[in-house]
Amino acid sequence: MNVLYIHTHDSGRYIGPYGYQNLSPNINSLGRESVVFRHCYCAGPTCSPSRSALLTGTWPHCNGMLGLAHRGFSLYDYQKHAANVFASNGYETILCGIQHEAVDPANLGYQIVENQQKNTLNTEEYDLASTDAMCRYFVTRDSQKPFFASLGFISCHRDFPPVTVEADYIAPAPPLYDCARNREDMAGYLSSVKIADQCVGRILAVLKQQHLLDDTIILFTTDHGIAFPYMKCSLYDTGIGVACMLYYPDNPMRGKALDALVSHLDLLPTVYELCGIEKPAWLQGKTLLPILNGEEQEINDAIFAEVTYHASYEPMRCIRTTRHKLIRRFDIHNRLVPSNIDKGLSKEFLLDAGILEKTVQPREMLFDLFLDPLERENLVSYAAYKEIYQDLSQRLTRWMADTQDPVLISVPRVHAPQGAKINKLTCLHPGMTDFEHEEI
């Protein structure tokens, strides 16, 4: 089986198959031919940790990617990356567009790399050029080998392209306040979705033209939530919730949406099994085939996610079951970390409204997601939830201990690699150059 991995930036679930029907018809079409996982969650809601977890099948704190690759973090072992695994199993591997797991994509195992440098291209030009490069590969390839192809879009990363949707007739993503600035910011994001959708349409058309859909697995997903406050780089569902659609020939769940609790770590074991590749011993996720074959409705009784570094140090871990979630913070800093919120109109709105005057960040938060899906009411101190809290707390601590999470053993903090670029906790956005190299 061939494998095509299509990935967008910072998109969460704000695309057609998850409710935004009118802006992504091509992605919608792919969703109808795929199985759509409504409850898939990333392992770390920042770019490099999330992608590295997905593409190695291991937790970020286990694979070394505790922060961003372009800021000095790296995998402990790049041979565990999916591209290297596929290459070692006789696949031709190609990357078109972006990746976020290494400064040099050659480390990842891609034999062909196209359109890696953005240079002077804007987002739309870059993504269209990446898509065209992948289309050319499918049309001109003469290899008898199966392929593992990664098509990476800058969409929907900031800065957003010129707005092409009517800002006054959309709603900001919850929990953001409905006002002109936040509507305009959301319109920028949705305009970026339209670019990604155009690219998906092109690639699907070529796959059909080249008669590749009968022997190709297509995995469409994103890294984490959208780049807005309380989303990207947070452990709320708006941060860790991701779109995930899996297409493959003769899929018995084709055209269905499933509510099974799924982690990004479960995707590689599934794809390897579909391809007949022996699953590496290091994988920490589970195959989804029992769900896809109709044998089981769930394979996970809980999933986990983590943040250690983004622009700044902000260690957090969470455990999420179908109904409940516990988020635990580990740093002694008890205030908002503004540098871990991407700059934009919605961030400016909160800064102007005085969000930095809020001094309390709860050390633990417990939510009943059936009754409180927006995660507003912290139930940690509620007597009725005492047993649930104790159970989740013990399971979270046990997972951290079993996986040798450095947050448990590093005092006072987990050290960044030598020379890594880390913002001070008070920097206003990740683009600032006021880096803090010394331990706080």
Provide an overview of this structure:
It contains 12 helices and 15 strands. Strands 5-4-6-1-7-9-2-10 form an 8-stranded mixed β-sheet, with helices on both faces. Strand 13 and strand 14 form a beta hairpin. Helix 5 packs parallel to helix 6.
Helix content: 25-40%
> What is the number of strand segments?
15
Shape: globular
Q: What value does the average pLDDT take?
A: 94
Low-confidence stretches: none
Radius of gyration: 21 Å
* Count of alpha/pi helices: 12
SS strand fraction: 15-25%
Q: Going across the major beta sheet, what is the strand order?
A: 5-4-6-1-7-9-2-10
Counting helices, strands and paired strands, the structural category is alpha/beta
Main sheet makeup: 8 strands, mixed
User: What is the first-to-last residue Cα distance?
Assistant: 50 Å
Give the SSE string.
EHEEHHHEEHEHEHEEEEHHEEEHEHH
What labels would you give this structure?
12 helices, 15 strands, 28% helix
